[in-house]
Amino acid sequence: MIKLTIVALTLWFIWFSNTHFDEYTVRILNNIAIFVILAVSYNLINGVTGQFSLEPNGFVAIGAYVTALLLVSPESKQYQYAIVDPYPFILTLHANFVVALLLGGIFSAILAACLSFPVFRVRGDYLAIVTLGFGFIIKILAINVPEATNGSLGLNDIPEFSNLYWTGGIAMIAVIVVLNIINSKFGRAMKAVRDDEDAAIAMGVNTFKAKTLAFCTSAFFEGVGGGLLAALLTSISPDLFDFFFTFQLLIIIVLGGLGSTTGAIIGTVLVMGGSEWMRFLDEPIHLFGYNAPAMPGMRMVVFSLGLILIMLFAREGIMGKRELTDFFKPRKKGDK
Fold first, then answer.
1. Where does residue 292 fall: left (phi above 0), alpha (psi -120 to 50 degrees), or beta otherwise?
2. In percent, how much of the chain has pLDDT > 90?
3. What's the average model confidence in pLDDT over 12-30?
4. Which residues cross the membrane (predicted)?
5. How far is CA 69 from the centre of its chain?
C-alpha cells in the first residue's frame, strides 16, 4: 500500500510540475530525473554490490552518442560533419525515440558484459583504475573517430524529445527495477559480495554472475540516461563526458548513502537541484540594509560547506543503507 501511494504521488507530481511550473523549473526537474536514473543504477554496482567502479561517464557517453546518431536526420548529419565525411552507414542510421533509447542502453549493456570478464579479475582500487581507464578511452575515441562522432565538434540539432513525462517515467521504472533486483535472490548475492566476497564464494555464491548482472543493469540504465540527456540538451560533445561526470554521481550516491536507492534519489535532488536553486548567492544580496556585491561562485562555496557538514554528521550518508519503506515497517520486539 505504501509503495502504491509513493508511485501515485510521484505520477501526480510529474503531471502537476509539467502543467504548472515554469520552463526553467521544469528543465531543472528534467535534469534531476535523468540523474536519478544514473544515480540509482550506479548505486547498484557501487553501493549494493560494493564494487568501486568509476565507469559511468563511458556508458553515459555511449548511450548519448547512439541515441543522437539515431535521432539526427541524415541531412543534418551531412551538414554537421565538417572535419571529415561520415562513414556511409552513419547517414543511414535512423530510428524513433523509444528504439533509440533502448539501443543506447543495449549497446552499453553489451559492452559492460564484454568488459566484465577482464574487469572483475581485479578488486578494490585496481578495479577503480581499470574502470576509470575505460571512461577515458571512450572519451578519446569520441574525439579521434570523427567519421562516427564528428570528433570534438560533437553532434547538434538533436530533436528535443525529452520531457518530464519521459524522464520522470523512466526514472520511476529504473527505481522499481533496481529495487526489485535488490530484494531478489540476486540482490542478496550482490550484498554478500559487498560484505565479504571470499565468504560469499565459500558459501557457494556465484560472485562473478552477481557482479556482472549489477554491472550490465547499471550500464543499461546509464546508456538510457545518456540518451535522455542528449535529447534534453539537443547537443553533445566529448567534453560533456569527462571524469567530473562520474565524480558528480559518486558524490550523489555517497551523500545519500551507499546501498540505499532512496538515498541516491535524495542525493540527486540535493546535488543537482540545490546547486541550481542556490544561484541567488552569486548575485548582489540586499539584507538588513547591507548591500553585498555579486560574488560569482559563492553558491558553490556554501553548497560545498553544506556537503562537508552533512558528511561529518552522517558518516554513512543521509540514509545509510536504509530505504524509505523501512521507516513504515512495524518494529519487532527488542528492536531499538
1. beta
2. 36
3. 89
4. 31-49, 93-114, 126-144, 164-182, 249-274, 294-314
5. 21
